[in-house]
Amino acid sequence: MFDISGRKALVTGAGRGIGKVLALALAEAGCDISIVEIDMKNAAAVVEEIREMGRKAFAFEADVTKKDSLRKAFEGTQKEFGRLDICLNNAGVCIHQSAEDTSEKDLNHVVDINLKGVFFCCQEASRIMIPQKKGTIINIASMSGTIANVPQKQAHYNASKAGVIMLTKSLAVEWAPYGVRVNSISPGYIRTEMTLMGGQMFPAWESLTPMGRLGEASELRGLVIYLASDASSFMTGSDIIIDGGYTAR
Ligand SMILES: NC(=O)c1ccc[n+]([C@@H]2O[C@H](COP(=O)([O-])OP(=O)(O)OC[C@H]3O[C@@H](n4cnc5c(N)ncnc54)[C@H](O)[C@@H]3O)[C@@H](O)[C@H]2O)c1
After folding, report:
1. Is 130 touching ligand 1 by the criterion CB < 6 Å?
2. What domains, with CATH codes, occur in the chain?
3. Beta strand 239-242 pairing with 180-187
4. Helix (H) or strand (E) holding 161
5. Among this protein's residues, is 126 annotated catalytic?
6. Is 226 a catalytic residue?
7. Does ligand 1 lie within 6 Å of residue 190's CB atom?
C-alpha cells in the first residue's frame, strides 16, 4: 500500500529545509524527483544527492510566483518523466512583522509565494494529472493557518496559510472526479533555516509546544509517504497537523 517506487514527483523549494528532506524521503522510497527552485546552487546539490541514490533527478529554475517559468518547469518535468504522480508544493516564506507596519510590498511577497504560488503550481499539476486521471497533490500549509502564533506577529503569513488549507479543500472537491487528490500538511515549529531567523524565540516556542521541543523535518516524512501513496486513496481535502501538540491546547 505504501509502495511508491517508480513514481514521478515534483517538489518546490527543495533546495533546503523541509522541501529538501521530503524530496530525499520520496527518492529513498523509490521516486524520481523534479525540483523547482529559485536557489539553483542548493537545488543542484540535492539533485546530486538523489542521483547518488540511483534515482533520476532534475532541477528547474523557477519562481513559483511566475507563471511562465513554472509552465516551463512542469512541462520540462513531464517531458523528462512522461507523467507526474506526486506534486509537493512546499516553497514558502515568512516575515515577522506587526500588521500595522506591514507594507503592501511585504504583503504581496508573502501572499504571492505562499498562496498564489501554491495555486499556480496546483494549476500546472492539474494540466498533467487531470488527463492522466490520477495524481496526488500535497500542499505544505502550517499550523499558522489554524492558530495565530505568539510572541511573533505574522498576520500575512497566517492568512496565506489559512488560504492554502481552504484552497486544498476547494481543489480536492473540484478534482475528485478526475482522480486527483489534494491534501495539506500543517507543521508546527520545525527546525529549519526559516525558523532559525527567529532563533531567540525557540524557548518560547518550546514552552508553548506540549512535547517541549521543535520538530525535525524528518518527522514529516511518514505523512508525506502516506499521502503520496495509495495507502491514502480515500483521503482528499484533508489538512493534517503535525505540531507536537501545539494546537491541541
Ligand atoms: N519551518 C517551520 O517551522 C514551518 C512550519 C510550518 C510550515 N512551514 C512551511 O514549510 C515550507 C518550507 O519551510 P522551510 O522551513 O523549509 O523554509 P526554508 O526557508 O528553509 O526553505 C524554503 C525553500 O523555498 C525556496 N523558495 C522560496 N521562495 C521561492 C519561490 N518564490 N519559488 C521557488 N522556490 C522558493 C527557497 O529557496 C528555499 O529553498 C514553507 O511553505 C513554510 O511556510 C514551515
Report:
1. no
2. 8-243 (3.40.50.720)
3. parallel
4. helix 155-175
5. no
6. no
7. yes
